[in-house]
Amino acid sequence: RRALPLLAAVLVAAVLAAAVAVILLRHFHSTAAGASAAQSASAPASSASASPGQSGEKQAATRLAGLPSQSGRDKSSITTAYDDVNACGPQLAQDAQTFSSGATSRQQLLTQLSTMPGRSALPAGMLQTLTTAWQASITADQDYSQWAQDEASGGCKKNDHADAHFMAAN
User: Fold this and answer.
1) Longest Cα pair distance anywhere in the chain, in angstroms?
2) Who is most buried in 37, 57, 146, 147, counting CB within 10 A?
């Protein structure tokens, strides 16, 4: 129960990553199928011009697919930090930095997403959903970091879920 909010956030991120992959694959395959039908009905000169767009979409999709996995790499250390703060554990002094590092990592992902080559070839709604999710994760990590600092500086209380920063993170 004590790790339920964090596990829910991790689950949402995993579902989001899977959804991104499915959407990209469906979008790419439907575009490729439509282009194949158009190619068979059109002259060879126009079929040559359809290929670069497909390649750009596929490259953008491949780049994008790698970003959620980078976000998932922080999961283990953040989960450990959450459990440690919740139990007033031995790493309490370092836990705030772990959460801050998670927020920094997600900020880097947002920067990569916003400057990613071929971004315009991807569905705008999907990019906005991913951006919104990472922004929410950054905010939660920052609040969890403050919670860890509160517990470290104010005399830690096990399972202190009344802390304002803990409640904000959830």
Assistant:
1) 75
2) 147
Are 152 and 94 in contact by the 8 Å Cβ rule? The answer is no
Element (H, E) at 120: none
Question: CB neighbours of 69 closer than 8 A, spacing ≥ 6?
Answer: 17
CA-to-CA distance for 163 and 15, rounded, in angstroms? 28
Distance in angstroms (rounded) separating the CA atoms of residues 139 and 64: 22
Question: What tokens were used for 94?
Answer: 């370092």
d(CA 165, CA 153): 14
Q: What is the pLDDT of residues 62-103, one digit of tens each?
A: 888 878 777 777 888 999 999 999 999 999 999 999 999 999
Q: What is the CA 143 to chain-centroid distance, rounded? A: 17
Tell me which amino acid residue 15 is. Answer: V
d(CA 106, CA 110): 6
DSSP structure class, residue 156: -
List of residues 6+ apart from 98 with CB closer than 8 A: 77, 78, 80, 81, 148
Higher pLDDT, 35 or 165: 165
